[in-house]
Amino acid sequence: MNKIKFLAMVLVMGALAAFKADVPPAGYKVGDIATDFSLKNVDGKMVSLKDIKGAKGYIVVFTCNHCPYAQAYQDRVVALDKKYKALGYPVVAINPNNPDKVKEDSFANMQERAKSNKFTFPYLLDDGGKIFPQYGATKTPHVYVLQKTAKGNVVKYIGAIDDNYEDAAAVKQKYVENAVDALLKGKDVTVKETKAIGCSIKA
Amino acid sequence: MYKILSKISIVAMVCMSVSCKKETTTVVKANDTIADTSKTQFPDTLAALIPKPIKVYTNDTVSVKAYEYEGLKYYLNQKNDTTYVINFWATWCVPCVEELPNFEKINAKYKENKVKVILVSLDMPKMIDTKLLPFITKRQLKSEVLLMRDPDQNTWLPKVDSTWSGALPATIIYNKDMRKFYERSFTYDELEKEVSNFK
C-alpha cells in the first residue's frame, strides 16, 4: 500500500514538474480566492484587507509612480475610491515595483505622490515582491476587484480600469465601475476580464 | 500519508507560483488572413498593399506612420520570404529602451538574409512630438518605426496574441510558416538564437 502511495506521489510530483516547465505562473483567475496581506502604507502603518471596516469588497489596484499609464489613470483611481468607498468597495493601491530597480517608485516617492495627489486610499509597498505574483499582476496599472464572502475574498474582475487610457472623456466602457455596480446589485459581472497595455513590473 | 502527500503538493505549488517566472511563448502556425503577396513582388504592387496610416507624424529628420489595429495587422501577417521581428515598445518603457540596440543590430546584420525588424511604438499621443520623434533622431534608429494609436486595447491586444497580458516589451517573430510570441526582454544572443530558428 505504501508503495502505491509512494508511486502516486512520484506521479503527482512528475505532473507538477511538467506543469512547471510548460505553463507560466498564471496567478488568480476570476472565481479564485485572493490572499490577504499585511503591507506598509505611506503613513507607516501596516494594512490588511481584513482590517478595512465596512468593506463588502475591494478594488485592488497594482500601480506605481513612474509608469505613464499609471499616471494617466491616477485621477481615475482617486475618483473610484471617492465613489465606491462609501458603498463598501474601497480602493487599495499596491506598488509592486522594486524601489532598488526604479528610484521613482521608492517608498519616500510613494509618500510624496500620495500627498500631492491627495490619495484617499492606502498606497502600499509590496516589499520583497511577494504579493503581486500570487495575484498574477504583470504590469501597472492592473486591477483586481474582490468580493468579500464567507469563504474569502473572491476575485470577480481582472484587468483595466476602462477602455481609453488616452482620454477619460472618450471612455465607452468603465470596466471596473460596471463590475462593482453589478456586485452591489447582487448581479453577475458581465465583463470579467480585460487586457490593456501597462508597464511591466520591475521585481 | 495523505497529509504528507498533500503538504508536499502544496509546497510544490507554492514554489511553482513564486519562483518560476518563465517567459511566455506561444507558437502558432501563420494563418491565412491576408492575401499571398509572395507571387507578384513588384515594388508598385507591394506599395499599393501597404495600408493607409491614420496619421503621419514628422519632424525635420524622421517620419512615423500611425495605425489603428486594422492597419497594423498587415504588418503582423505578411506572407513572403522574409522573417519579420515585430517589437512592441515605448520610449517610457525602460526595459524596452535597454533592449532596442539588440533589435537594431539584428536588423542591420541580417538585412541581406531577409530579416526585417519593425518597432511598433506604444507611446502616448502627447509624447510623439516631444519624446518619440526626438528619440528616433537621437538614436538614429534604422529599423522601421510604426506607431500604434488605438486606445481600445482590450479589443486589439488579444488579436496580436491571445496570451499577451499587455506588459511591455513584447515581440512577435514570424514568417510565412511559423509564428512565436514573447512577453519578455531579449539579450542580443537570445534574440539572434530565436531568429535563427526561423531560417
| Computed structural class of chain A | alpha+beta
Beta-strand share of residues of chain B: 15-25%
- Write down the overall mean pLDDT of chain B: 84
> What letter string, H or E per element, gives the SSE order of chain A?
HEEEEHEHEHEEEHE
Mean pLDDT of chain A: 91
CATH architecture descriptor name of chain B: 3-Layer(aba) Sandwich
CATH topology of chain B: Glutaredoxin
The amount of helix of chain B comes to 25-40%
CATH level-four homologous superfamily name of chain B: Glutaredoxin
Shape of chain A: globular
Oligomeric state of the chains? heterodimer
Biggest sheet: strand arrangement of chain B: 1-9-8-4-5-6-3-2
**What name does CATH use for the topology of chain A?**
Glutaredoxin
Number of distinct helices of chain A = 5
CATH superfamily of chain A: Glutaredoxin
CATH class of chain B: Alpha Beta
Q: What is the chain-wise order of helices and strands of chain B?
A: HEHEEHEHEHEHEEEH
Strand content of chain A: 15-25%
Keywords:
heterodimer, A: 203 residues, alpha+beta, Glutaredoxin, B: alpha/beta, eight-stranded mixed beta sheet, 39% helix, globular
Fold and architecture overview:
The complex is a heterodimer of chains A (203) and B (199). Chain A is of the alpha+beta class. Chain A has five helices and ten strands. Chain A starts with a helix and ends with a strand. The longest helix of chain B has 18 residues, at 2-19. Chain B has an eight-stranded mixed sheet. Chain B is α/β, with parallel strands linked by helices and 199 residues long. In chain B, strand 8 and strand 9 form a beta hairpin. Chain B is globular, with a radius of gyration of 19 Å. Chain B starts with a helix and ends with a helix. Chain B has one domain (22-196): 3-Layer(aba) Sandwich (Glutaredoxin). At the A-B interface, helix 1 and strand 10 of A face helix 1, helix 6 and strand 7 of B.
